[in-house]
Design goal:
The complex is a heterodimer of chains A (228) and B (660). With 228 residues, chain A is α+β, with helices and mostly antiparallel strands. Chain A has helices at 2-17, 48-54, 68-84, 111-129, 155-163, 166-169, 210-214, and strands at 23-30, 36-43, 59-60, 63-64, 88-96, 101-108, 138-141, 146-149, 176-182, 187-190, 196-197, 203-209, 222-226. The longest helix of chain A has 19 residues, at 111-129. Chain B has 660 residues and is an alpha+beta fold. Chain B contains 24 helices and 20 strands. Chain B has a 20-stranded antiparallel β-sheet, with helices on both faces. The longest helix of chain B is centred in the middle third of the chain and has 41 residues, at 242-282. The chains are: A alpha+beta (228), B alpha+beta (660). The A-B interface holds A 2, 5-6, 9-10, 13-14, 16-19, 25, 43, 45-46, 48-53, 97-101, 166-167, 170, 173, 178, 180, 182, 196, 198-200, 202-205 and B 399, 401, 452, 456, 458, 460, 463, 468, 470-473, 475, 477-481, 488, 490-493, 495, 497, 499, 533-538, 551, 592, 596-597, 599-600, 602-604.
Amino acid sequence: MLKKYLTYSLLLCSMLCCTSCFEILEEINMHKDGSGSMLVTFNMSKSKTKLASIMMLDSINGYKVPSEDEINEALKDVINHLEKTEGISNIKKTKDFENYIFTVACDFKNVESINGIFKELIDKQNRNGGTKFTTKNFSFNGATNTFNRYFTYDDSIKKSFYHLKREDRKVFEEASLTAIYRFEDPVKSVSNQKAKVSPNKKAVMLKVDAMAFIMGEQSLANKIQLSK
Amino acid sequence: MRKLLLIASTVCITLTATAQDLATKIPSTATAVVTLKGKRITDLVSVEEFSNSKLGEMIGKELAKESDEKVNNLEEMGLALDQNFYYFLEMDKGVFNNCFLIPLKNSQGLLNLMGNSQRERIITENGLSYFQDDYDGSVVLWDNSTLLVLFAKDTSNDYDFYDDYGYNDYGNDNYGDALETPTPAVVEEEVEIETIVEEAAEEVAIDAESEIVEETVIDIEEVVIESTEPTDNYYNDYYNSEEYKKQEAAREKRRLEREAKRAEKRKKLAEATLQRAKTIIAGNYTQGNILKNAGYVKTIGNGQDEAVAWVDDFGSIYKDAMMGSYYGAMNPYNFMDMDKLYGGFSISAKLNFEKDHASVKTIYSMNDELADIYRPMYQGKFNSNFAKYINEDRLLGYWSINMSTEGLLTSYPQLMDAVFKTEGEKNYGDVVALGTQLFSLLLDEKATAEIVRGDMLLVLNNLSEREVTYTDYEYDEDYNYKEVVKTKTETVPDFLFMFSSEQKSLFDRLVRIGLREKELQAIGGIYQIVSLPQSSPFDIYVMFKDNTAFVGSSKKDMMAISNGTFASKLSSTHKRNMKKNVTSLFVNGKKIVAEIPVDSYPSELRNKVSFLTNNTEDVYFNFEKIKGNTMKGEMIWNTPEEGHKNSFAYFINMINRLME
């Protein structure tokens, strides 16, 4: 009783005042031959005080709060899935429950291998949810030296967002998605106006606010033309 | 003479008013009654005022949509909003009747709300109009002054559900008789399959090469598929057999019989419901109406509340509901004497909207035996020292608990002993009694109570800013990034938690271990827990003083308590609430709303913070100790007088403003 009495009281205190947000970072280093490495980072450290409080509960706002063990299991599933995906190797993961930062990194033979990672998942979503998300997220054409990041907006994103409780939507207010792509050849042009090309022309960065992404106002889609 | 006339007319008016009140239509045997006093509510906020509020306008729009704009506001619904509305529950041999009684000015508004198809179903007889749902038999019945809605549920034989839907039917047939010849062959086939699978599995075990494993597994699958073919034929033969067809015909016959039985039950319930609805609206009961029920009349009292809920003898409701809902061993009535828990247990709740506060007062009455068991649990002695460590000027809220650990540990086994039966076919009474005796023997209640006496207090003080670190990324011009640790300020309240304990030596021992294991750090008489995760929203300090253990997040406050320099200030109201109640909760609404940083509010509320600050007051919740065999609870929501003519108007105004 004493523990519950304290847990709920302290949780109430921290929930009252702490803010919550997260950042997703997608980083790809491309080689000339189309192979490369990828790193995905899920950084929730700005919300760590709130998350530490939430982790004390079994569920919040009707959602089950995963335990550390369950998060570890989920990460293990991700790694297992990557291991089974053709063309993916050198898989590494990091987890930091102090700061709530999780990363997964891997090498790929070609960008088709990255498409393979999500294909099954996206197919399933399209089948069950009636959505039209493209299963091809990346392409690299060595002949034209063009790198493409595909993304087709679907209204279901907005609908899912509005299905959330008003309080839960707050999580996305200060969240962001950042994509960084690095190349060996210099970048000639980018199609996404929000994307920035580095002074040495070898890297492109695109930062999108989660809310703008959800509302379909900003996209991760980008066509990057490299010099031959 | 004039005086006589005045008295006579007053009596007549009172009688008419009483006769019109729909309470006269509630039988005296009703188990639960909820009363909503329209007159009192419309005196607080008139129908016109409500209709002009944002909520009223929203309801108006919905009504207009539903009625093709024939009804555009509450007034046009034809309800007599200045009279009492009722809900009551009555039970008869497992049938639960849920009935709503709504006063009408006229029935036209009601008709306007109905669609054509609904109107066509209306039956009119003897000045009553009604329609009845074909499936569940619920009745909507009205005359010129009363609308009655009655839902009935027969729970007396819920366990017949399995029989009703034939879940047990398939167990009645003897499948073995259907087809005897193929059985030995199937057994042989199965043996063969098993042997092949075992052999293949042995091969797999011998060869560890993964490719070979794959091939072998495929082989096994193939063998299994081939070998199942004769089994399929067996099933086809079975389903085509004369015996099976005979059984199927018998099952179909039984299904039709069950369906007819169900339809008959539904019909009888529907007829009884309609008959009951007519009896209720007539209100002629041989045993009199609810105003003859002493328990209800006592609860209603002088009638100064806006709404009253009353539940009589919770035990009988529970018993009626449980007897029908659970079948066999699952029914707790088989091994527990639920009457001991709920017998004679009644609840009443009253809602009041006063000028400067709204309140909900509840009274729980229990049987004497249960009261005797519960009483020691709530005989806590509140540590008056706790009040020395509160400063009201900084107080955001508190939560006190005043129970007796010793009483809890001695009463709980008694409660278990009383509840579990020692008689009847299913009884766990002796086993439970053995367990509770062992529990009492092994546990020294007095010694345990010395560690945690049972009185405790959590205090939330001023919000304070705390710097927390987080990881961000810094990018160079080529978008190579490195992780950087940044800081931001978060606002969290300081808390102080206190509980009485006579075991200082135990605390000292824990502190010595903590210091040795470097889990604690000594800071001038207090100890900081140093092993907290970085993400903890608080620093936490502990100490022990004057038979009180302290856990707090403010180093300054903890040091002041340790040095005896804490500046305390607490009103006698708060002291009394903590001391006389089993639990007491206080929320300093105005201070909390004012101190939470604007950024922490949902974006849609940020421009309303000043309105919220000016319009939020304190909230209290108190739950008293057992007196006799009753316990009383009370929630008080204080409301500002300025800008609101009463507390009900306050809530309407708040909704108005928040909907903007």
